[in-house]
Amino acid sequence: MPVLGTCAGMIVMCQEGDDEVRRTDTRLLGVLSARVDRNAFGRQRESFEADLEVEGLDSPFHAVFIRAPAVVRTWGGCRPISKLGDKVVMVRQGNLLAASLASTPSSPTTCASTGCSWNSSDTPQEEEPLEFPYIALMRATM
Asked: What is the pTM of this model?
């Protein structure tokens, strides 16, 4: 089943976290071969919006970042599919998709819940397009 984790969902999906993840004893599911920086974009007051180029989407994607994490390292089958500056803000590993952005009406959650397909011309042969007939969203209060 495809799974999309946004913001805190991205954090708990990763196998490794930064010092803040360890300090707060955040439990990680460890399903993504990635290391995450929990508050990569700062605190709540540094929240912002940005348009992202995302592999597999034809046009820029408007995203909201609120105390957003960023992936700082990937390995194995996990690969970046969007960056903001030098920070990785979306990754994909097989049927798993994780994004730094907050879950809002303009986020991929909306796209996913309407049944869109997430694929690109350079998707590895072993990866199928992600079909989201419904959304499995992981959220946590952190």
From this structure: 0.78
